[in-house]
Amino acid sequence: MEPQRGRAAAALLSESSPGRRRRDGDKARRAPEPTQQRSSWAKRLLGFEWADVSSWHRFVCLLNRPTDPASLGVFRFLFGLLMALDIPQERGLSYLDHKYLDGLEVCRFPLVNFLEPLPLDWMYLLYAVMLLGALGIMLGCCYRLSCLLFMLPYWYVFFLDKTAWNNHSYLYGLLGFQLTLMDANRYWSMDGLRDPRKRNAHVPLWNYTVLRMQIFIVYFIAGIKKLDADWVEGYSMGSLSRHWLFDPFKLVLSEEMTSLLVVHGGGLMLDLTAGYLLFFDATRPAALVFVSYFHCMNSQLFSIGMFSYTMLATSPLFCSPDWPRRLGARFPACLRRLLPSLEPPQPSEACVYEGPKHKDRGRGERGPGLRQKLGALFTVLYVLEQLFLPYSHFITQGYNNWTNGLYGYSWDMMVHSRSHQHVKITYRDGVTGELGYLNPGVFTQSRRWKDHADMLKQYATCLSRLLHNYNVSQPEIYFDIWVSINDRFQQRLFDPQVDIVRAQWSPFRHTPWLKPLLVDLSPWRAKLQEIESSLDNQTEVVFIADFPGLHLENFVSEDLGNTSLQLLKGEVVVEIVKEQRNYTLREGDKMQLPPGEYHKVHTLSPEPSCYMYVYVNTTDVALERNLTQLQELRDKVQNGTETEPLPPELQPILDGALGDAMQPDPVVQAFVRRQQQLEELQRRRNATLGERLQRFATRKYFLFRRSFLMTWISLRNLVLGRPSLEQLAREVAYANMQPEAGAVGTEGVQKEPERAEL
């Protein structure tokens, strides 16, 4: 087969550019017919003739056209490598014992309730199998078996915990499933060293088509989801533009315009166009630059594991499939021996060979068989399924909340940001009627349950079972969860008057106890931002919207001075519980709230009420004032303007040492700790590139070290039995060994914003 030069578009169904030699000969003999001109245009643009999709037979032949395996083999290697790095990190091998410790009294959130984790030692074995599968995929060793060893444990772990679901984890599972059905071990693989038939052999074109369509769907559907009004208006990721990565844009744009035009506008345009631009030769170089820059930025902005690097690894799939050979041919001859084969690929039984050029080269012409037809059928059905799933929420209505579906398969990445202001869990003994309260998140290891009705139902069912151990009979459990999505008012997500233990929930029916998102109040966001920007740095504000007939019970801490409540819309009654007095407020009214007391805000108006709390944390203000005075005193002593010796209790502000002889003043303790944090932050900012790389490598070394040591301990336990508790404690302590304090810092993570309850 002649080398593929990529003159035309390497589109989703294209192996390579059409040969120009025969076409030029035809032109010399006769002028092309109009249909031939149209066909040539389709061939140049799409890589195939319209006749190739004119019938099922022709379509099967097209999808099984022999294609160079080089690019697919490189992607297989990179994907296996990235998954091997991902398993100890985002998949959780490094902290598996914290999550699945035997006998741990914790509520879990599997996709189906009968799915349970294995005992801890067996979970480590499962992860070890998954890791071996990823390494086998990378090396192309026992390829089909390695794909199964990776894919089956991966999907089991994925379905075991809905709280860990996200789009890129779902994508990894899809790519693992696709590779299981593909011939990705036909290039740069150990299987090829053992079996000459698999060494550097053609692969069917559908292997590339499925992967290209999958990545196209990721980009394009993510762009469609970003056409949401919140994203277009710049409310989804409002604080992201403060990151240092956007500083170059802020040289010419304000922070608000950087957020609107670069973060939101740029993200929308890239997702909508990246898939198309990667398909065509003329636009692919620019697309590769932009998507690479985009994913490199994301790797620094968010804690998303290997996702950015996986997407970078998929980009070359859109190039001509023989690009690794052409790249290798540029290396010196002495280095080519270390590279994969640069020779043209050999024929494969998996492909359909047609045309005179295959006859001339002795390959014969063979029609599609059952295997080829199944490959084409799989391609069509899989692509249709992936196009349908992001919009299948009308079927799984029980998973729809304010956003549709279980987060993780809809490609609605970063479209919604939430902040939780107030979460209260109330239980009532069904026999005695006694009321009690639970700390939010008790018996859980995640915060995702607060936003999803299906998880809330699982959590309530689990709590009702566990409360029996604490002498609570037939418990009723009520949740009062206040959430703001994309800078809207804080409002209730679920009905606080419904006992969730006995509430009805079905994956195929609308959740009746879900409160609607007050989208009619969305235009208020500009006014809320204006109010917030008009306040000084010491004043805080919380915006609330509540439904008619409900009330908010709140407590004003004594630390919060000058706390007031102002009504923005509707009518409410404020009940001061201790005084047993009621105050009616109408639009524009304002009242002071007594500190150290409970109050209730009842909504009387037929439409939702809107109000805001304005308060000052007097304790924080006083502490900041004292810290400022200590900083001024320290500066005076250091520059010599303060000649009087410091009393012993203030000496730590100079040397930063908190002595054990006497209990230091709490303000002095806070000052010393803050100075140490500032010095550490400054040291990190001034660190050289070598120091940063060393810190990164040290952190990763201890993470992988713990993963492998804990896995070894568990495998030893399965084979030889568990040793004494003393020996096991010593082994775990050795696995938990960390670098010296200060050598490694906390890794920056983009976390869900949380605000303290009043």
From TrEMBL:
Give the record's keywords alphabetically. Answer: Acetylation, Disulfide bond, Endoplasmic reticulum, Lyase, Membrane, Transmembrane, Transmembrane helix
Locate the region Disordered.
Answer: 1-38
Transmembrane segments in this chain: where? 124-157, 169-185, 205-224, 257-279, 286-312
What main location does UniProt list?
A: endoplasmic reticulum
Classify the protein's membrane topology as the record does: Multi-pass membrane protein
Q: What is this protein called?
A: Vitamin K-dependent gamma-carboxylase
Q: What is the lineage of its organism?
A: Eukaryota, Metazoa, Chordata, Craniata, Vertebrata
Compositional bias ranges of the Basic and acidic residues kind:
23-32
Question: Residues in domain HTTM-like?
Answer: 64-323
Give the EC number(s) under which this enzyme is classified.
4.1.1.90
Q: Which top class of enzyme applies to this chain?
A: lyase
Catalyzed reactions per annotation: 4-carboxy-L-glutamyl-[protein] + 2,3-epoxyphylloquinone + H2O + H(+) = phylloquinol + L-glutamyl-[protein] + CO2 + O2
One term of GO molecular function: vitamin binding
User: Which superkingdom is the protein from?
Assistant: Eukaryota
InterPro entries, per database record: HTTM-like, HTTM_dom, RmlC_Cupin_sf, VKG_COase, VKGC_lumenal_dom
One Pfam family name from the record? HTTM
Cellular localisation: Endoplasmic reticulum membrane
This protein's GO CC annotations:
endoplasmic reticulum membrane
